[in-house]
Write a structure and sequence with these properties.
The protein has 564 residues and is α+β, with helices and mostly antiparallel strands. The protein is built from 18 helices and 20 strands. The protein has a six-stranded mixed β-sheet with strand order 6-7-8-9-10-11. Strands 3-14-15-13-12 form a five-stranded antiparallel β-sheet. Strands 16-17-18-19-20 form a five-stranded mixed β-sheet. β8 and β9 form a beta hairpin. The protein is globular and about 75 Å long.
Length: 564
């Protein structure tokens, strides 16, 4: 073909871009099965079917779209069938991996409970969940071994004390995380409790936001310790003091981890206390209307933020949803201390709160019932759970502090723990999770005990050193933001082990700023060698680091040979 003939041929029309499933641009296209079943029937409607039909007719009566889809909006996931090895996780279909029992998640907005509510949770655990009750790193409680026949009775008990499981999972607003010391801390900038309560009352269980592109995570804190891991939430409000407008919130959007980790972006916008719920509504609406729905792997808010950038997102929020500009505001100051609240601290009313760590989130109904007893024995009726799998008892008189500290220790909850017990977290792992490849809870518990023994004669670590174990790549316990992040995988086909991430951290762990960990190329540690590896890398840090250098700083500058 001559150049002249080629030049005379008409140009092909540009190929239209594939729709991303943005409602305001593409319309309400059902581009995958998740969008189809959400459009066919609001997932919130499944609650009544559980009560009227499935609890009476049993597990086999539940159709797939409800069982694997809409049940999530009620906090229900089928748990992993016992005895299936991690080597089969990626080879079996979901219905082959699942058991006829459920994980049931209780959403505890702000982590706040009364002792009456805690006692009901304890009773459900012992009567219906084989004494399981794990405290998650989002301030929730998770039961296992729940039968569908028992769910209406569990809900009845929860309803009596104001507990819910509604939208504890699903493509909707998940639990609203809140500072565990909201309203009581002597050094609090602003109390976010009213905003959290209003969001829960007005929007949780509302069809307005029951069909979002994917899960949507919210965090509020008014405490200077930056205690709600705001950098990895879809939307976060962080307490600051504006030089002219006084206390309010700095607004962050688009954080999330999993297989595509991204820390949230500051919009540079200052939110007055009276604007907080409206702004939450606006950002949530942007996500609903412009979020990507075509691919499940790209439909968290972080992908929209990555494409738009913070400036455009703020402009759309202001122009299309708020109808006004938000004031510019300051960034949060560096956290003055770790934000896990473990220890004994004076409240602004002169009484004390006591924070104790679980061992990697494991509690159980028997223990939680005794926590309620202990609190009430000293006149307290308020409990808080933390984003670090910890428990707080509030409103303790000074004379009763040591009684509570000792009583918690007898229950396996420690207000003065070792650094390893304090800063180690683990997800559910292969014991109950259909996505997991390896055990996490027992492995982490054994690791903590072994490290306590091996470092027993050493001076305490000067700065927090977090160790997080996750059973799969989804990062439910934030492996990329731990000092030592351990991501479960199979080595050589069937050997359980972990990929290693080093040097991650968030502002709540007393870092200057949040950062993702460094993946050590080719480093895979079998589970049986975990204690040897972790001891080795910590001792190298203690030997090689400069004065005052944190583990994260050292891990990012160290040669790879020092990290293996």
């Amino acid at each position: 073909m001559t150049d002249t003939a080629a030049a005379s041929r008409p140009a092909r029309p540009a190929r239209a871009p594939k729709p991303k499933g943005q409602w305001k641009i593409d319309g309400k296209l059902q581009l995958n099965h998740n969008e189809e079943f959400k459009a066919e029937d609001d997932a919130l409607n499944v609650r009544q079917r559980i009560i009227d039909v499935y609890s009476k007719e049993g597990f086999d009566s539940i159709p797939s779209d409800d069982l694997s889809g809409r049940f999530r909006w009620m906090g229900l996931y089928t748990q992993r069938k016992q005895g299936i090895s991690g080597a089969r996780t990626s080879k079996l279909e979901a219905d082959e991996l699942q058991d006829e029992y459920f994980m049931l998640r209780v959403r505890i907005d702000g982590g706040a409970l009364s002792t009456e509510q805690l006692r009901v949770i304890a009773g459900v655990s012992t009567e219906f969940a084989r004494n399981t009750a794990d405290i998650s790193d989002r301030q929730n409680v998770q039961f296992h071994w729940i039968r569908i026949e028992d769910v209406p009775e569990i809900w009845r008990r929860f309803d009596e004390v104001g507990l819910i499981t509604t939208e504890a999972c699903g493509d909707c607003p998940r639990v609203v995380m809140g500072s565990p010391v909201a309203g009581i801390a002597a050094d609090e900038i602003i109390d976010p409790s009213p905003a959290i309560a209003e969001i829960r009352e007005r929007y949780i269980g509302s069809p307005e936001f029951s069909n979002l592109p994917r899960k949507y995570k919210t965090a509020f804190t008014g405490h200077p310790s930056l205690d709600v891991v705001h950098e990895i939430n879809d939307i976060a409000f962080v307490g600051v003091v504006h030089p002219e407008l006084g206390p309010g919130y700095d607004l962050w959007v688009g954080g999330g981890l999993s297989t595509n980790p991204q820390l949230a972006s500051r919009l540079g916008a200052f939110v007055r206390p009276e604007e907080a719920v409206e702004v939450w509504h606006g950002v949530t609406s942007v996500f609903r209307d412009y979020g990507y729905r075509a691919q499940r792997t790209r439909n968290r808010l972080k992908f929209l933020i990555k494409d738009w950038g913070a400036e455009k997102f703020r402009q759309v929020l202001q122009d299309e949803y708020l109808g006004r500009a938000l004031a510019d505001g300051p960034a949060p100051e560096k956290s003055p201390r770790p934000g896990d609240h473990i220890g004994v601290f004076e409240q602004k009313d002169g009484r004390y709160f006591i924070g104790a760590t679980t061992t990697v989130g494991r509690a159980g109904g028997e223990v939680l019932g005794k926590v309620a007893d202990l609190a009430e024995s000293v006149g307290s009726h308020r409990i808080r759970f933390t984003p670090h799998q910890g428990v707080l008892i509030l409103d303790v008189d000074k004379a009763d502090v040591e009684t509570v500290v000792d009583g918690l220790a007898e229950l396996g909850l420690y207000a003065r723990p070792s650094s390893f017990r304090r800063w180690t977290m683990a997800c559910t792992g292969i014991e109950f999770c259909k996505l997991a490849f390896v055990d996490t809870k027992d492995s982490a518990t054994e690791l903590v005990a072994e490290l306590e023994k091996r470092f027993a004669g050493d001076a305490p670590l000067e700065t927090p050193l977090s160790i997080h174990l996750n059973g799969c790549p989804n990062s439910c316990v934030r492996v990329q933001t731990a000092d030592i992040g351990l991501k479960g995988q199979l080595l050589d086909g069937d050997t359980p082990g972990f990929q290693v991430h080093l040097g991650g951290g968030l502002s709540s762990s007393h870092r200057d700023e949040g950062g993702l960990g460094r993946t050590v190329r080719g480093l895979r540690v079998p589970t049986v060698d975990l204690a040897d590896y972790v001891e080795r890398v910590i001792r190298r840090y203690l030997t090689d680091s400069d004065q005052g250098e944190t583990f994260a700083e050292w891990a990012h500058r160290a040669d790879e040979e020092a990290l293996v």
